[in-house]
Amino acid sequence: MATTASAPASDLTPQETSSSEIPVPADQQVLDPPSPLDLSRSGIFPKIWGHSTEDRNLTLYGFRRFKTSHLVSLRFLEEEIAELDHRIYQDGLSLDNGTLDRKSDRLGLRCSHRDASVPALQDSITDSVVLRLRSLLKEYDDALASFNKLMAMETFSLIDDEGQSRERNDLHPYEKYKTRLVRADLGTRTAHDPFHRGIQKALRRFQYWRTCGEVETGGEQGTITRPPRDAKSVSYQNSAFLAGILSRILASLMAGAFMVLPLIMVSYQTRQRDRLITISIWIVGFSLSLAATLRASNLTTTGVVAAYAAVLSVFVSKN
């Protein structure tokens, strides 16, 4: 039997030599060029790394919430569901043969607008339509719940962190002042405190005046200006923390005033009727102030007013 001798490895041409037999040195390997996405990510990585290792909490835990983009996305979902909802209602109205009466018509279907032409049920109510409706409703419900949680998070102004503010060259200083970021390290705002909100707004306004050199008053006087600050100095203001301290101090002073002032007035009054009138006026004033300034439940408001009235009544009864 004839055999065919194989040629030695040295006689093989470069095309016939397997690449696995002759390894290519690492310094001579040709790597694929990076994609534009890789280049963009590598370009912003130094900024991301700096924010992720920052010592200041505003920079470390502050994230953009994209409020308008969330709302636009929700509106698109709303329109898609509304289209399916209209189709379902028209299919349901096509089943009505005039048997609905006023008592059983809970949704007011007798007055609903009816389209001139409605496709057959077997063509309109299909498995694909039902699955699409379920998917859109689930996405819509999840998006609403997530947006509700997002809007309940503690916020701060971009102008509070001048380091991040200077990086946003695409925004006007007033836009930076209006831009809100969320604090990922803080809990949600469970109660509405008007003192805290008002003080925080004032602190943001003051920070805008300090960092940008001007505040737009919106009146006939134009703007209030001050000399520009040094470009190398970076300002940092935790407005939520400062507003919390100042609001608690203000609330404590107001509570003390509502307790001390009526007692001082009553101590100089000799007739019991005058004391009762004074105490009644202060209780009514305290109730109105509490209802106007704090967004508390009716039960909580009633309990606080009752405790306040009890304290004043005890003082009057002993005197």
Please describe the topology of this protein.
Blueprint: H1 36-52, H2 57-61, E1 62-64, H3 67-93, H4 121-124, H5 127-151, E2 155-157, H6 162-167, H7 173-178, E3 180-183, H8 194-212, E4 214-216, E5 223-225, H9 239-267, H10 272-293, H11 298-318
Antiparallel strand pairs: 1-3, 2-3, 4-5
Task: Describe this structure as you would to a colleague.
It is a single chain. The protein is mainly alpha-helical and 319 residues long. 57% of the residues lie in helices and 5% in strands. β4 and β5 (223-225) form a beta hairpin. The protein is flat and about 85 Å long.
Number of strands: 5
The helix content is 55-70%
User: Which term fits the overall shape?
Assistant: flat
Determine the structural class based on helices, strands and strand pairing.
mainly alpha
**Beta-strand residue percentage:** 5-15%
Counting DSSP H or I runs of 4 or more residues, the number of helices is 11
Q: For the residues shown, what is the average pLDDT? A: 77
**Which residues sit in consecutive blocks of at least 5 with pLDDT less than 50?**
1-20, 214-228
Secondary-structure element order, as H and E?
HHEHHHEHHEHEEHHH
Rg over CA atoms:
35 Å
Biggest sheet strand order reads 1-3-2
Largest sheet: 3 strands, antiparallel
Note the gap between the termini.
Answer: 133 Å
